[in-house]
């Protein structure tokens, strides 16, 4: 997930997202938490958390999280960063910046994204589970790593009432 913006955009994560957190071996958050309470709750409720800070995260979150998080997950080299710049030219920029990764999860735009660069880097943006901006739905991603392959599913959340 990314761009949760709690408690500014929502008071809490949707129940469906918490269910996915509980079922996951690894939870990824690509920044823009806004307040540390969600980080603390995810640290408690996640089997493993890989996360970075975003541009809307202040000193407390920046002191606890890296700008770029890196981890090995199921044989894949995973990176997590908040900002990747404009969509145009993203693949080439990320190939240069992250030539040591297999998968890069990013946020910032709130726009779901799933592409593979010419060098083979998989770029994933889960959108936001709490702030759809101009998108039709709030979203998050789940993924399964098996045999060195990554299968990804985008989940659309129902409108909040």
CATH fourth-tier homologous superfamily: Metallo-dependent phosphatases
Mean pLDDT: 96
Q: What is the 3D shape?
A: globular
Work out the helix count. 4
SSE pattern, N- to C-terminal: HEHEHEEHEEEEE
Extended strand count = 9
State the CATH architecture: 4-Layer Sandwich
How many angstroms does the end-to-end distance come to? 21 Å
Helical percentage:
10-25%
Largest sheet: 5 strands, mixed
Instruction: Give the CATH topology.
Output: Purple Acid Phosphatase, chain A, domain 2
Strand content: 25-35%
The stretches of 5 or more residues where confidence is low (pLDDT under 50) are: none
Structural commentary:
The chain has a single domain (15-157), classed as Purple Acid Phosphatase, chain A, domain 2 (4-Layer Sandwich), CATH 3.60.21. Helices cover 20% and strands 30% of the residues. It has helices spanning 15-23, 36-45, 59-64, 90-97; strands spanning 27-29, 49-51, 68-73, 76-81, 103-106, 113-116, 122-125, 138-146, 149-157. It is globular, with a radius of gyration of 15 Å. The strands form three sheets. A five-stranded mixed beta sheet has the order 3-4-5-7-6, with no helix packed on it. It has a two-stranded parallel sheet with strand order 1-2. Strand 1 (27-29), helix 2 and strand 2 (49-51) form a beta-alpha-beta unit. With 161 residues, it is an alpha/beta fold. The protein is built from four helices and nine strands. The mean pLDDT is 96. The longest helix is centred in the first third of the chain and has 10 residues, at 36-45.
């Amino acid at each position: 997930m990314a761009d949760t913006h709690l408690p500014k955009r929502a008071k809490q994560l949707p129940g469906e997202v918490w269910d996915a957190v509980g079922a996951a071996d690894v939870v990824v958050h690509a920044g823009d938490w806004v307040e540390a309470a969600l980080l603390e709750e995810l640290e408690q409720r996640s089997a493993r958390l890989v996360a970075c800070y975003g541009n809307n995260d202040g000193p407390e979150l920046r002191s606890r999280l890296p700008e770029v998080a890196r981890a090995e997950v199921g044989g894949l080299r995973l990176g997590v960063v908040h900002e990747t710049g404009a969509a145009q030219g993203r693949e080439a920029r990320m190939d240069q910046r992250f030539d040591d990764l297999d998968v890069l999860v990013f946020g910032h735009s709130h726009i779901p994204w799933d592409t593979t660069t010419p060098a083979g880097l998989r770029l994933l943006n889960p959108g936001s589970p709490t702030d759809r901006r101009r998108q039709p739905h709030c979203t998050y991603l789940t993924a399964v790593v098996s045999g060195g392959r990554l299968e990804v599913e985008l989940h659309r959340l129902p409108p909040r009432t």
